[in-house]
Design brief:
about 240 residues, alpha/beta, two-stranded antiparallel sheet
C-alpha cells in the first residue's frame, strides 16, 4: 500500500510592483523619482556652493594665524596615513610662514584612544614647536570641532587641513560656525579608503545641512580655553620657536 505524501505547503506569492498603466500615472511616478533625486543631491550641492572658491592647495594657501587639522584615526597609537598627510601639510604651512599656530582637534573620548596628543607628537617630530600646537580633545565630529574652535578657542579665521573629499564639508561647517575659513585639500591616491571616504561624505552632507541650519551645541562644550591666544602671543613675542 502506497503511503500518501504530505501535502506541500503553498508558498505565499509576492506581488511584484507594477508600473502605472496610465500615462498620467507614469508621469507622476517619474516626477516623484526626480524629486527624490533632487532632494538627495541638495545637501552635496549646498556644500559645493558654501565652500565656493575657498579651496586651496598647500602651495597657495592664504596666510592665517591658525590652521585647524581634523582627526582621521590612529593606527597602533600613531596617526593613520591619511591623518599623517594632513599633519604633513600643516607642518609645511608652518615652515613656510603661512600659519603661526596649529589647532589639532580629534577624539579622546576614552583613555586608550587619544588623537590630539598623537597629532601633537607627530607635528613636534616634524619641526613644529610644541608651543605652537594647541589640542582640542573633544572634536568628536566636524561640526563639534568647528563650533569649539570658535566658541572655546576663539578662532575667527583659519586654514582648514583635510583630504579633498572632506575639506568642502569642513569649510562649509566652519563658515556656518562663524569662522572665516579656507580649505587646504590634501591629495591622496584613489585607493579603497579614498572611495570609502567619498561615499561617506555623500551621507554626511545631509547631517551637515542639519547642523548648519539648527546649530546644535557640541557633545561637549565646556569653558573657554586660552591656548590659541597664548600660542599666538608667544609667536608675536618670538618665544618657543624651537
Amino acid at each position: 500500500m502506497r503511503r500518501r505524501q504530505p501535502a506541500r505547503e503553498a508558498r505565499p506569492r509576492t506581488r511584484r510592483p507594477r508600473l502605472p498603466r496610465t500615462r498620467a500615472g507614469r508621469r507622476r511616478l517619474t516626477q516623484a523619482v526626480m524629486a527624490v533625486c533632487v532632494l538627495a543631491l541638495l545637501p552635496a550641492t549646498w556644500l559645493y556652493v558654501a565652500a565656493g572658491d575657498r579651496l586651496r592647495t598647500a602651495a597657495d594657501a592664504p596666510r592665517a594665524e591658525v590652521a585647524v587639522v581634523f582627526g582621521a584615526g590612529l593606527w597602533d597609537g600613531e596617526p593613520s596615513p591619511y591623518l599623517a598627510h594632513r599633519l604633513d601639510a600643516a607642518a609645511r604651512l608652518y615652515r613656510e610662514g603661512r600659519i603661526e599656530v596649529v589647532l589639532v582637534t580629534g577624539d579622546n573620548s576614552r583613555e586608550d584612544y587619544d588623537e590630539p596628543d598623537a597629532m601633537r607628537a607627530y607635528l613636534v617630530r616634524h619641526g613644529v614647536p610644541a608651543a605652537r600646537i594647541v589640542t582640542d580633545y573633544a572634536g568628536f565630529d566636524t561640526w563639534d570641532s568647528c563650533v569649539r574652535a570658535k566658541k572655546i578657542f576663539g578662532v575667527d579665521r583659519a586654514v582648514l587641513v583635510s583630504q579633498g573629499f572632506h575639506v568642502r564639508r569642513a569649510v562649509a561647517l566652519c563658515q556656518a560656525a562663524g569662522i572665516d575659513s579656507y580649505g587646504v585639500g590634501v591629495e591622496e591616491e584613489h585607493d579603497a579608503t579614498w572611495y570609502y571616504g567619498g561615499t561617506r561624505e555623500m551621507f554626511a552632507a545631509g547631517k551637515a545641512v542639519l547642523d548648519a541650519v539648527f546649530r546644535p551645541d557640541p557633545r561637549f562644550l565646556g569653558p573657554k580655553e586660552p591656548g590659541v591666544a597664548r600660542a599666538l602671543a608667544g609667536a608675536a613675542a618670538g618665544t618657543g620657536t624651537g
